[in-house]
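[job 0417] fold request received: YbaK/aminoacyl-tRNA synthetase-associated domain-containing protein
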Amino acid sequence: MMPHSTPATSIDDAAKQRGISSQIMLKTLLLRDMGGRLFLACVPGDQQVDPKKVRAYFNCRRTTCVNAEEVVHITGFKPGTLTPLILPESITTIFDHSVLQLPEVTISSGSDMAGIMLRTEDVIKFCKPHFSHITKALSTP
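[job 0417] inference complete; emitting structure tokens
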């Protein structure tokens, strides 16, 4: 367990409070397709999910981000505390391939007051995610 002294307000804030790089954190984004299928996309904390790549992987015509109120209703977790470990079976999880390069990752504990560090292989065994390249290309200034 990696406790925070104050509720985390962002990936960077959580990383700072945990004394780690945001690169080893899993950032999550809940998406829905037009048929109602749900996908939890997970990428390293210093990256961004590209919903178009998630949509292409699952052969969806369109996906949208689930709004904050619905995230709570569907998962029981508020945005920023969503963990890939405890999800309804109706949600399909997908990780970016780059996660495989990380020996350990930190994920939300379900609370904005703590994170959990786990071996990446253990998270993968538990979550059984799909893998694809789902990050946005980050532009350099």
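[job 0417] notes: The longest helix spans residues 11-18. The mean pLDDT is 95.
[job 0417] exit 0
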